[in-house]
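lol forgot to send this yesterday, sorry. struct tokens for the thing we talked abt
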């Protein structure tokens, strides 16, 4: 019997390295790009995300990858990159 290695659910995506934090607790997907960030920080600085996470997830829910909720967005990868950089760089 051959031991199969586990399938990497992120293998088909491109990690945006300056917005991929190993200790992050939320993964966002925009197009083929993925971002691992901090849910609390995102909610603190964005009322849209705060409102989104204020409600329980739908019954079918989002997947979980690397122990983090995996949320597919409908934004372009470029727009999400600009948004997250602006959000994280604001002080």
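and heres what i got for the seq, position by position
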């Amino acid at each position: 019997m051959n031991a199969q290695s586990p399938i990497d659910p992120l293998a088909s995506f491109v990690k945006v390295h300056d917005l991929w934090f190993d200790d992050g607790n939320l993964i966002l997907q925009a197009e083929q790009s993925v971002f691992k960030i901090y849910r609390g920080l995102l909610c603190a600085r964005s009322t849209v995300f705060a409102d989104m996470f204020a409600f329980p997830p739908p019954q079918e829910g989002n997947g979980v990858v690397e122990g983090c909720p995996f949320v597919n967005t409908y934004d372009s990868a470029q727009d999400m990159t600009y948004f997250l950089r602006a959000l994280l760089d604001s002080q």
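The longest helix spans residues 77-89. anyway ping me if u want another try
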